[in-house]
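Lab notebook, bench 4. The sequencing result for the construct came back, and we need a structural model before the next group meeting so we can plan mutations. Quick request posted to the team channel:

Model the 3D structure of this chain.
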Amino acid sequence: MRIALVQVGYGDDEPMSERIERVTGLVRETVDAHHPHLVVLPELWAPTGFDYRRWEAAAEPLDGPWATAMTLLAAETGTTLHAGSFVERLAAPGADGRTLANTSLLVTAEGGRTAYRKIHRFGFGSGEPKLLEAGTDVVTVEIPSGTSEPVTVGLSTCYDLRFPELYRQQLDAGAELFVVPAAWPAARVAHWTLLGRARAVEDQAFVVQCNTAGTHAGTEMGGRSQVVAPTGEVLAEAGTNEDVLVVDVDPGLVARTREAFPVLADRRL
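Done. Here's the predicted structure in token form:
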């Protein structure tokens, strides 16, 4: 299974419409050059991850222009696209009274769409918790792997990576590969790489982490997107600038790792 991570870099001076056009071109170029089965984009790459002031104006419904464009892009390129996340405008306020959510979207070439609303909101009472409704659903989905068998993917977003209980629930739902789009800052990028390896080792699953590069709203992004094997080995890692990672993974390694070192069978909780 070939996976491509597009680590988008941007600043405050790039209009959202121009960035969408540019990133769409990057996805096309990546698919044409490498023919991946899965392409992954970062969290909130279009409306920006840290400039909360832009979120209200950038919000769209789940069937809005951005999601439609990503669906068409997956169909055009013939690949499964994890389009990162966007600011979703909800049809009605949620339990916390918010009408916006940080929603990631995975689209297959055939048009199948799976959405995940970020459960853990970053900001310690401001930022995401103040503006966004928290998701409640643990989401997994089967996608083509390039072999006769699909692979089960668990969806999460950025700050979720700090909460291992979410990944245990995805594991119990059959997840073999975790996809984590993010806007993770440079100040804590060491945690980003460490936690990704930890989730891979403890759940004996692949971890695919696609971060953001550049600086927006005065916050320097960390980059360092990575793909980690179920053994904890880092198979590929990006630098701190805009980058494209392409890596081939063997989905069968998950079962072989779990069989050779059956630690998961000893769980008591």
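Helices lie at 16-34, 55-58, 65-77, 128-131, 164-172, 189-203, 252-260.
Will bring this to the meeting.
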